[in-house]
Please model this.
Amino acid sequence: MIIPVIQLEAHFSRAGESIAASGGQTLARWLALEMVFDKPATVAQIARRLGLTRQSVQRVADLLAHDRLTGYASNPAHQRSKLVQITPRGLRALRAIRNAQRVWANSVGEEIGEANLRHASRVVDQLTRVLTRHRT
Model:
């Protein structure tokens, strides 16, 4: 199962890069914007949620802030760990990306079918939970 999943990840990455480009972003930047859409989060929190290193997320967060798609805000829970928050400019980029993602997902979904997608999603969620517990 590892090889087909890695091949699938490559397809998702290519699609994600193409979708993110509709908002002038990369896949990494899109993911970071999604993580702070609902509420601000620290770089460490974003990294944990995405399963990435804090350093790689920090680099992306700094680029987003430089482009004024996000900003850093004080964190009442931790003085040194700032909160990343989305800006109106970031919301506009994210809206364009989400529109492109919806078109792509609807097209793929029509071919695969809703029941199959829901089943696959449940299996992937379960597999993720199991693999998280069995990290090597």
About this structure: DSSP finds six helices and three strands in the chain. Helices lie at 2-21, 27-35, 43-50, 54-66, 88-112, 114-133. The chain has one domain: 2-133.
